[in-house]
Design a protein that fits this description.
The structure is a homodimer. By secondary structure, chain A is α/β, with parallel strands linked by helices. Chain A contains 15 helices and 20 strands. Chain A is 35% helix and 25% strand. Chain A is globular, with a radius of gyration of 24 Å. Chains A and B meet through helix 1, helix 2, helix 3, helix 4 and strand 3 of A and helix 1, helix 2, helix 3, helix 4 and strand 3 of B. Chains A, B: Pfam families: AA_kinase (PF00696), ACT_9 (PF22468).
């Protein structure tokens, strides 16, 4: 008998019939002999509707009260799900984040999990019940106030409970079959990845792959929780995210590149003509940090000897652009840079693969593929298992497709077409 | 400085603009130098919408999960109300029933309050905050599960918290100016009652006056909580419900009759031809009690000597009729009664007044008034401070008006008309 933690997102429980379908899936897992803990998000658009109500009442609602408001969404979905399971003849008990022992700090809106003490969940499991837990929420250790975990919160709840309960697997249900080698909407020959390491998945998430949130993968990695990303519309195996996918199974050789990710949500700012003196770059980035802006990539040109000035370019979330530009304009007098350039028509394309550690030719192959496809590289950044480039936004699709093909990630189109679902 | 507990019902917080209006009223009370604790119901139709969702998922939802679902309604309204108050520059903190220390038994759907331990509310007040508390809900002492208090639950929460906090007053806000001597829709000359005793108010509530629920008045009486029933649309004084209204103030002599209540929600069942033997009536009422039916009035005719049989009539909530009739049919073999008669076209008219203790002529005056008005009395029941009669439903309005006039409760129509609001 295994202990299975399952997480269903808002679209999986969007209405009564969706909830009934999810209930059947949960009961099937239970009937197969497993203990089951389910983490559920708020129904479909509930959170947006509640935010809309809040906006009607106050332009700047206090975080504590906004969290109190938003957490009612999961309370509704989890109670309905427990009812739907009861209606199938199985015992289910729903628990708020607080009842489930999800202890957080008191940063309303984006609280961090400090501890998980799921004694009531264990008790429910011991009695043979299915436990339904509200995702996205917890209770603050200091103030005992209700908190929310922010983006990716329900996935993080699922992984945190799986860790605390020492679950055999944390299943994250979504509307696709798992993690793909590239976005299938861009690369039709993209393939589902059977297994991927935490490190690679974290790079994928950080580089724009939207299926799993970075934070949940970080948590899973720290506590060695195996994640199984799969579709709520089929029973097919999805993608396993584990510590070391290539020693656990023997079915495949480690690929050089696991996937190609892309991200269109960043913009580029160039500070032109910065005096090439010690401390000027530091002053620029301190100003941005003080404004709460996360910088992604940075490039500093070689200083032109004639002028003693240099250009510094960096990328940041497009949504932070105006805050950043305002902050930079304020220090123009101190830094005495010449001007600011802004470009939100950029995109980031990233190759991720633990295998590139032992394959020094990856960068060359990647850049050659982009050059052949006519895509110009504006900025470059690398980690041990990732290469990212900034290109013009219109070139993102071409770049992703070219890289995918260059590293032999394309599915065997012929067999897929001729033999249908039986290929590969 | 006084401690004021205020309760606002669902219609007072039906939408964002209602919530803002209530927030202004609360802030005005705070600004007047009071500590303020607010109990709030779910917004308008929220509870019905949640019940509708539950019905779509399961025809027989478990009580625990239904309570979990329904309590999200107050969570929404209280968070929004706290935001609206913050938007007026005052600090407000919302608390669930559980956080407010409303401890109940574990009877889901109609839990009873066992204890109230409002330490977090006191703490909020000590810090100068306005405390907003979810009405209608608590947490079970044994199972730590969320419970709901059932009908009149928010009023009861308000009175219970007022008692635990030793508040100076519990203000119940509604859409009328207070308690009236009769339903103003029936008797245009009905007058607002400035003060009424707990005992009278309990009889009024039990006899169909809908402003306050019996249970909340019982609680207030036990803990000597002064209730002030008033309109959320004006700042006029409403009706005070207190221990002894006629010694506290000196402005008025005790009236014989405080008010005339009516109730159209009952039906009458007559068990015809019951053998006049010891234990037969007991068997009938035990059967009904086992079926969970609350009987109101009972009349047993004098046995006809010739047949040795008698008729037993009783009234009950119309909604329980079919359950009662089914239960009675099942015991027809044992009891050997002749037949059942059912009548849901009845109404109950009640005179309530602590003054009738010392005025023996009340019954005679009441019955004469009904006779003069051509209304036939079908059943009679009395307590020390109440006389109730069952009449045919079409005669209810006539009976109420006649009784109201007979006991000089009608407002002085002439002065009211000629001098407008300044009369009397």
């Amino acid at each position: 008998m295994a202990l299975v933690v399952q997480k269903y997102g808002g679209s999986s429980v969007a209405d009564a019939s969706c909830i009934k379908r999810v209930a059947q899936r949960i009961v099937a897992t239970k009937k197969a002999g497993n203990d089951v803990v389910v983490i559920v998000s708020a129904m479909g658009d509930t959170t947006d509707e509640l935010l809309d109500l809040a906006e009607q009442v106050s332009p700047l609602p206090p975080g504590r009260e906004l969290d109190m408001l938003l957490t009612s969404g999961e309370r509704i979905s989890m109670a309905l799900l427990a009812m739907a399971i009861a209606n199938l003849g199985h015992e289910a008990r729903s628990f708020t984040g607080s009842q489930a022992g999800v202890i957080t700090d008191s940063t309303h809106g984006k609280a961090r999990i400090i501890d998980v003490t799921p004694s009531r969940i264990r008790e429910a499991l011991d009695r043979g019940h299915i436990a339904i837990v509200a995702g996205f929420q917890g209770v603050s250790q200091d103030t005992k106030d209700i908190t929310t975990l922010g983006r990716g919160g329900s996935d993080t709840t699922a992984v945190a409970l799986a860790a605390a309960l020492e679950a055999d697997v944390c299943e994250i249900y979504t509307d696709v079959d798992g993690i793909f080698t590239a976005d299938p909407r861009i690369v039709r020959a993209a393939q589902q990845i059977p297994k991927i390491s935490y490190d690679e998945m974290m790079e994928m998430a950080a580089c724009g792959a939207k299926i799993l949130h970075l934070r949940c993968v970080e948590y899973a990695r720290r506590f060695h929780v195996p994640i199984h990303v799969r579709s709520s519309f089929s029973t097919k195996e999805g993608t396993w995210v584990v510590s070391d996918p290539y020693t656990e199974g023997t079915e495949m050789e480690q690929p050089i590149i696991s996937g190609v990710a892309h991200d269109r949500s960043e913009a580029k700012i160039t500070v032109v003509g910065v005096p090439d003196k010690v401390g000027e770059a530091a002053a620029i980035f301190k100003t941005l940090a003080d404004a709460g802006i996360n910088i992604d990539m940075i490039v500093q040109n070689v200083s032109a000897a004639a002028t003693g000035r240099t250009d510094i370019s960096f990328t940041l979330p497009t949504t932070d652009s105006s805050t950043a530009l305002t902050a930079l304009k304020r220090i123009q007098g101190d830094i005495a840079y010449e001007s600011l350039l802004f470009d939100d028509q950029i995109g980031k394309v990233s190759l991720i693969g633990a295998g590139m550690r032992s394959h020094p030719g990856v960068t060359a192959t990647f850049f050659a593929a982009l050059a052949d496809a006519g895509v110009n590289i504006e900025m470059i950044s690398t980690s041990e298992i990732r290469i990212s480039v900034i290109v013009e936004q219109d070139g993102v699709d071409t770049a992703v497709a070219a890289a995918h093909r260059a590293f032999d990630l394309d599915a065997d189109q012929v067999s897929a077409v001729v033999y249908g679902g039986s290929g590969r």
